[in-house]
Amino acid sequence: MTIDGEAVTPGETFGVINPATGEVFAYSPECKREHLDLAVEAANRAFASWKLNEAIRRKALKACSAILRANSDELAEIFTLEQGRPFQTTKEEIEGSAWWIDEVADTEIPFDLLEDSGSRRVEVRRKPLGVVGVITPWNYPVFLAMIKLAPALLVGNTMVLKPSPYTPLTTLRIGELLRDVLPAGVLNVVAGGDELGAWMTEHPGINMIAFTGSVATGQKVAQATGIGLKRRVLELGGNDAAIILPDVTPKDIAREIYDEAFGACGQVCIAIKRLYVHESIFDEMVEELRRIVEKTRVGDGMEKETDMGPINNLPQLERVTELVEDARQHGAKIITGGKRMPRPGYFFEPTLVANVSEGMRLVDEEQFGPVLPIMAYSDIDDAIERANRTEYGLGGSIWTNDIELGCQLAARLECGTAWVNQHKRLAPSIPFGGAKMSGDGTQFGQWGFDELCQLQVIHLAK
């Protein structure tokens, strides 16, 4: 682990499983409460000087991005071994994270001049909160850490970072690499299970929690942070709907729909998880998707020919299997796939499911795996209502050749981000957050900076 700029190796460890084999391939240090206390103390000490010089912070972030790029091959190999995704995609995530850090490092911290009259001047300034505790999940461990790290450090906060116990190794290695460019205590990286996350949310020395993960865990974080009135940003689960209008040619969009539903083995919060297709093109859309899905090469992410790796962990594999079996028992039609693959590791066939509807678990719950339920509709108002009939509200999309109509319909989706003719698109300058049970707070852009800062109004009498 990295605490106060130094390597810390506690006596206890836990195994990390390669999901392509189902076997432990490495061991991670396990953080105890005393180590967390040391990390928080170090972050608070570092905050006193780190918050003072914005130019130094920008330069340090640029150095962080350069280190990620320079070590992308090594990091991508560790990443693939512990997460399962193909090597090329994990390398892209690391390089994409470096790009994101650079973009944030070049961004101006917001400053508002509300009034500058003959009698007074009124400014709104952003002041750092102090120590930010970051808890990341196993699906995008590098990206979801770095998009939080960059703006938090830029505005002057320091950090204690905890990756998922399923994928701790890449994050721990990044912590080691960044010791050379970040002052001691600015970034502390610890590893452990749910108990460690609970300690972080309750710790009096941590001023804010930024969490990405499940709704159930997010509710626990909200409860714990609420007691201490601790600032929080929660990015939680999603059950994104995509609605395809009848003016679309299925062959033209099938590949993109596939990519947005099955990329990263479907283990993406804002992946397409429900597909609504107008009845006039339903059969054609299903057939186009089937052709693509059945050509997917599923295998070990370290093999060059692999298109899709395994599900990351056994509990998630069991959940996906359970949801597909439940749909089958309730009359669903498995177009292709539908079962665990007969090989070591946590592999599940990429699966298309028809004859499903709201009320089935596969539709109502977030599957978070390589399974896509496809439903027909005849009336667009009905499709919108069905898409909104969920406790989730992270993202959604409309697919049509009529751009004006697409924008009108997208505005009716009850979600934090609604796309037209695309899905799963993010940028450092564009706010991102969930509606309903999909989140609390906003990331990215000015809105994200505001979450990471205390707003201070300064009145100057003239």
List the helices and strands and how they pair.
Layout: E1 2-3, E2 6-7, E3 13-18, E4 23-29, H1 33-50, H2 54-70, H3 72-83, H4 87-105, E5 112-116, E6 120-128, E7 131-135, H5 143-154, E8 158-162, H6 169-177, E9 187-189, H7 194-202, E10 208-212, H8 215-227, E11 231-235, E12 240-244, H9 250-262, E13 272-278, H10 282-293, H11 314-329, E14 333-336, E15 351-354, H12 361-364, E16 371-377, H13 380-388, E17 395-399, H14 403-410, E18 417-420, E19 439-440, H15 445-451, E20 453-461
Parallel strand pairs: 7-8, 7-10, 8-9, 10-11, 12-13, 12-17, 13-16, 15-16, 17-18
Antiparallel strand pairs: 1-2, 3-4, 5-6, 6-20, 11-19, 14-15
Helix pairs in contact: 2-4, 3-4, 3-6, 4-5, 9-10
Your description of this structure?
The chain is an alpha/beta fold and 462 residues long. It folds into 2 domains: 2-236 and 434-461, 3-Layer(aba) Sandwich (Aldehyde Dehydrogenase, Chain A, domain 1), CATH 3.40.605; 240-420, Aldehyde Dehydrogenase, Chain A, domain 2 (3-Layer(aba) Sandwich), CATH 3.40.309.10. Helix content is 39%, strand content 22%. The strands form 5 sheets. A 7-stranded mixed sheet has the order 14-15-16-13-12-17-18, with helices on both faces. Strands 9-8-7-10-11-19 form a 6-stranded mixed sheet, with helices on both faces. β7 (131-135), α5 and β8 (158-162) form a beta-alpha-beta unit. α3 (72-83) packs across α4 (87-105), α4 (87-105) runs parallel beside α5 and α9 (250-262) crosses α10. The chain starts with a strand and ends with a strand.
